[in-house]
Structures are given as C-alpha cells and as structure tokens.
Amino acid sequence: MNNKISFFLLIIVTIFLFEGCSLKSRIYKADKRFEVGEYFAASENYKRFFSKIPAKDKDLKAKVAFNQAECYRILNYSNAEQMYANAIRFGYPDSIVYLRYAQVLQRNGKYTEASKNYAKYAKIDSANSLAINGLGLQTKIDLLKSQTTFFKVKKQDAFNVRRAYNFSPAYLNLSGDVLFFTSNRIFNKKVAQKNSSISGLPNNKMYSVRKNAAGKWEKPEIISLETTPANFDDGVCTFASDGSIMYFTRAKAQSGSDIGTEIYSSNRAGGVWSEPKKLTIFADSTISVAHPAVTPDGNTIYFVSDNNKGLGGKDIWKAKLEAGECKFVENLGNKINTEGDEMFPVVRYDGTLYFSSNGHVGLGGLDIFKAVQNKDESWSIENLGIPINSNADDFGMAFEGKADKGFFSSNRGETRGYDAIWSFELPVLEYVLEGKVIDQSSNPIPEATVRLVSNTGLNIRVQTKKDGSYRLKLDKNIDCVMLASSRGYLNSGSKLSIPDLKESKIFTQNFQLSTIYKPIQIENIFYEFGKWELTAASETGLQELVKVLKDNPNVTIEIAAHTDFVGNNESNKTLSQKRAKSVVDYLILANIAADRLTSVGYGEEKPMVVDAKLAEKLTYLKENDLLDEAFISKLNAVQQEELNQINRRTEFRVVKTNYK
Predict the structure, then answer these.
(1) What pTM, to 2 d.p., does this model score?
(2) What is the CATH number of the domain that holds 580?
C-alpha cells in the first residue's frame, strides 16, 4: 500500500516538474519572439501562459506581465494599462515600468494618474525628458485644450476598411487628384494571405485612389510594382514633386528574424512603376530606416531610424540625394528628436516639416507637430493641437497642394488600435462687413456711397444696391473709419474695429442719412421745466448732433426750438429762443465753429406736421395732420399731453452746403 502511494506521489511530482519545465520553455520561446519584434505572436503566448504561472513565482509573473504589456503598447491595444499594473503589482524590478505605465495612462486620457507615475520614474531618472514632460501633465493638457484650432476633421469611410490598418496618406503630386496610402486589408479574398506574426494581420501594401471628373474619390486599387513578393510589407511612401519617383518603406516579414525596415525607390513611366531599388543610407545594413519624406526640390530626404547614434527611441534624420544616393546623413538634433519616438515626417511645398512624436509634450500617443527652420537653422516647433491631435496616435499628414486641407491617420476611438484615414481642413476665414443705408423714414437709399479707410491702408468705396444694402470683405486685426453719403442727404460716419479673430464673422454697420431739404428733429434733448437750461439727459442727443456736424464739415445749420400752445405766445417764443441758443452754446463749446450755427425760437408758431412714421406709431393720427391748438383740443387729456410733448421739440435744418 505504501509503495503504491509513493508511486503515485512520484508521478504527481514528475508531472508538476514536467509542466513547470514545459511552461518555462514556452515562455522562453515567447520571449524569443518578443525579442525579434513578433509582438502579436508573443502577446498571444504570454496571454496563454500568464495565468498558469504560480502566484509564488512573482519574478516570472512580473516579467511576463511587463513583456505582454510592451506587446500591447506597441500594438496599440487598450489593455496594455492593466498588464503594466500587474507588472508593478508583482514587483517588476526595472523602473522603466513606471514610465511605460505613465505613457499608456496618458494615452488613455488618465492624465492625473499618468503624472503620478511620471513623477515616480523622475525620482530615479531625473534627467529623462519624457518624465520631465509628464510632470504637471494635467496643467499642460489643459493649456493644449484651451488652444483648440479651427481645423475640421472627419473620418473618411471611403478609404477605410474595418478590422484593418489604413494609414499614411500621400499625394502623388501637387494637383491633389491621386492619393496613395498604406493598408493591410485583404485585397484578394480568393488568395489565402498569411497573417503577420508582428501584428496578427496581413502585411501592409500600398494603394492608390483617384478623383473622378465629378471630384469624387473612386475605389482604391492596390499598387503593383514589378516585383512585390507576398511576404514583403510595403508602405509609408513619398513622391518627388512631379510624381515620377516614389520612395517607400519595405520590410521582409520573416518569422524568427529581426531583419529591419529599408527604404526603396521606384520610377514611374507610362503609369507603370519600375523594379524597386534599395536606397543605401547607412553602411551598417542592420540599422532600420523607414518613413521617407522628400523635399519639394527633390534634393533632401528625411527619414526615421533607430540608429543607436540617435537621441533615443526612433529619430528623424536627413540626407542629401545625389544621383539616387544618400550623402551627408545627419540627425535633426534635440530640438526635433527626444528620448521618445519621432516618426512619419512630411514636408510641405514651402519646406515646412511635420512629424509625429510621443516625446514632446502632447495629448497622448503620437501627436503631430509642425516644425519651421529659422535663419540660424534652429527649429521652432508647435503642437498642432485639437482636433488634429487626440490622446491616441495621430500621424502621417498629407496636404493637398498648397491648401490647408488633406488627410492624416489616427487610431482615436479604436479599441484594437486600428488606424484609419481622416480628412482635415482649415476653413478659409472670412470677415465680412454688411449693412444698409436708409433715410429717416427707414426707406432704402440706392446708389449711396459707403467709404472705408483702415489703419492698414485699405481705402474702399462701394455703392449700395436698390435695397440700400452693401457688403465688403475685410482683413482681421484692423481699425476702420467709415462714411456713408448720398446726394441730397447729410453724411453719416462710424468707426469699426475687427479684432484678431480665429473664426469667420459677419459684422453689421447700418447708416441712417437725414435729408438736407427738411428740418430734422434732434432726439433726446431735454430742458428744465419752463426753463432753457439743458439737462444731463440731453448729452447723448447733443453728442449725436456734434457727430453730424463733424461728418458734414461743409454745412451750416439753423437750430430751431418749438413749444406747445399752452401759455402766452410771446413768452413761448422768448423761451424757445433761449433754448435754441443753449444748444448753439453747447456746440460752440464742442469746437463747432460759431459761424456755422444760428438759433431761432418759433414758440408755438410752427406746430408739428404728422409724417408717415408718426402716423404709424400713433394710430389716432393720419399723415399730414397739423398738430395745432384746434386739432389737439378735440382729443382726450392723455392724447393732448402726448401731442404737446411732440410739439415741444428742438430741430435743425441745413442752411448752406458750401461752408468754406
């Protein structure tokens, strides 16, 4: 009996030992796949074996959790965050785990938690720029969010295929009617395609799409090079300005090998691409190069490399192109490159460089940056901000000719990290000034002249249409003076400021012109009861009159004051004369020449004649009614007081239009 028990115990121990050895052997194989960059295959193995590692073997659990997290981070899987947390929980010994954990937290929009882990790493490596950038991250993110740009972005379903990567668009030439992009979509369902052990998906190929006569994009077509082996991974291309030469990234997918990426070129003749030729950049062929971008003059090529002479991660380099060879290869330096990854360079028609980075301060993942080279060859760098950038990976811009529009790549909103092509456009900002010129009865004045002069040298004249309207396009950040005029009317001026806006806006400026042939009532002129002193409430109306006289320096006017019929006419005339003179005195104090002004008091002698506007306002009146004592005395007490108030008015009329 005891022998049987011992025999069974021996079998159980043997099984456990065998399974332990087998487990470590399998993890070892997964590690090898991880080391050569087969991240999908490695992650699948790690996922299968992680739960089988005994809880007491914390070191192995921590190592597998970290490696699996690294695979997920590189593959842009959202569950990288949890695996880094597991690695920390099981005591992963390398402090790099805090940096990587912070990066995925940032990518997932958890900025406060990310900042805490950046701080933990910074205590160990205080000089690390990635950690330094992560300190106080929420404040930096809030600043980026406050600087939201006015780009309009939209996912382009016409180019994208679900459950596939679609990225790095590039225009064939400046005309913008042919677009190339990279995708690992299944282009021929009848032909079996082996998935990559790196991504778990088919290899990347290049596609082109063309605009038809109606300006619509047609169905994408795969690019056929003279030799495109099935196990080659091609993509991320750039073109000489005339579209005759293509430079692209190629990687040979070979299981168990750490062979890197290379840059090839191909010439186009008659719509056919030639046999690709490898572009030799570094003497050491094991150094990976990728993501080519050619300058408009075709003399310089930018590219990405993991050369260990760089600043860390992947850097952007450049070289001179001479007869198809690369010379004077140099790193772009620490203004562009960081300890993180700088990738996907793009050069616009004017030489401006755009690239993506997770090393500069950004929202998370890869952000797109704009870099302008100064006269001293230093770089000025700017984050393109929201909505071009997100907390996901944003990269690979393509501008349509000289326009501020085109396409870029992003995996925002994609839980499995699939890249999609998005369009972007910066709307052309318009600052429009419009309005109407009308008379005092609100009738339009056609063919009136509106003149505008700005502090920047603009001097514009425009005539109003039949409906009295006008419309002008202006620049931003200017100050203007305006004047509306028409024969038989007094001029009316105005001032206008257009600030430094970042969105289109319509400004409205209407003008009301007074005829020179009829007396014009001065609104809001008030006197003390039974006296001629002007009240403080009259200031607005008096300033309006000053403005009229300054807008019309060629006119002389008569100020006329009127009273109601209550009281003695002689005393009313005396009172009205003094009131008219009070207005003249005010105008003289406001620097209006005295010889342009006369005053007269009419008392009750010139009662108001009802015009169309007043008749519309007071329905018990008709146009041309004379508001004299005989008419008013027939009305009720409320109406009498209302009309007496109307008769107690101050007016001016134009006497001459040729002053000096």
Answers:
(1) 0.71
(2) 3.30.1330.60
